[in-house]
């Protein structure tokens, strides 16, 4: 039997029963190679030899005066010479946090490490998510104190959450392989679900991706057998050999490598079952109690109705007073799918877009709850961290026109902007202001020099004259009165200082085409969307001179991708979300399963279109930036 050539021409001329197994084989090999490349920066800590017996972390003297201390999973065993070598490695590398990766980590857990950890970014990206092996973390005592973490042992979920938190507080963090046993006598997937949840990794998605690969291999074997092609068995062989390809030449030597590789088609479903049905850890039970308390609170509020959260509709434009209003878009809650319908109207004269009827202050509290903090804090953290390139671009725009000593970021959230911007302007002191509690957390992390909690107007008198730059990145659209916010900025900024404003562009051509699925409409959070001409005019009336405008440069390539996410969420929101209006039904779960099945190809196509096609559309910018300078007098 001849093996067909894998060239593109040959592939296009093959029958499906040959081409599909060939593609699956190539995909398995490519995936394994990618994981191998991700593990390439991993290094081994040489600990030398010592007759000292390993001791459980729980028995260590956690009150010693050492600079570093350990936080580890229950049952972890670390010898004294390994601890000393790890401390030396951390000091020599200038690390505040070092995740210890057991050399014999089981295959499934080692694959998780490769799947979810970008080791190159982990050392250089200030906003990369904390990741590790789920065994032990070495950190400086100063950082542990600042992050409110006590040395000792934790269950897997709690350790995952601590791993993420410590990376948020650390300037420099890394991972290294150590010669420690990976919790011996424990099944490979015990605690895996809790560990992944603690890291903020969606467990169903992780299992679904693994299952999709497994099903593809089985389909390739069947197709090959049906068409008489050897590539079906090649796909199976590649699937079994993948762990060898991933770990060959790395410091990781999984204790179950041969068994896990040779029996992989049989063990994979068993691993999924163990992961999903594992006994809940104490951390998971505490989380479930929080979610149940939130669920009870939400349903009590739903019984009172959500119509009370809207003010009476106004007949005129809040920007120019015109009564020529038309409906721009009507939608539900696009982020959390809480009950309610919201309308954005556009002024026919000045083109200002605003929510009408508008949320009351109580409504704002209700619909913001668990979006950026509380139960939604992990999701918000990941979304804000993904803004790193845009944070850097914002800082670079100002750096091209000024060298500020002090900078106040209004609506800063946790201070992600300040954390990135100081890599562009290292001599600038970044402060943040926000109504949420996250701003103080950002200061504790060291991302902000000072974090001010409260409304800008209430704090403006104390802050007046302190800052060379004030920025408002995607802040004005959330405020009840954008013009009043500009008045406050004009009074607070030093003479000759700069105001940087970034907002969604309500004149976006794709925004009009995508309708309620265009994320920047973002109901009900966005109250006002101001056309760039209106903003420029308002700034000039307040004594500012426009220094720079950016539209295409401010564009974020996510229009179609996030439109697909909004559509999938509207069609089938997560049935178990704590703010659901009622208990999940079988129909809810079925709709969600269908949505998840469609998500992969739909999102892949949308991402490709965002990268390749959207930049070709004239006027497709979904955001704009305006940099203005306050008069000297």
UniProtKB/TrEMBL annotation:
Keywords: Membrane, Methyltransferase, Transferase, Transmembrane, Transmembrane helix. One of its GO terms (biological process) is methylation. The keyword Oxidoreductase does not apply. The chain crosses the membrane at residues 12-34, 206-225. The keyword Transferase applies. InterPro entries: SAM-dependent_MTases_sf. GO terms for molecular function: methyltransferase activity. This is SAM-dependent methyltransferase. It comes from Actinomadura namibiensis. The lineage of its organism: Bacteria, Bacillati, Actinomycetota, Actinomycetes, Streptosporangiales.
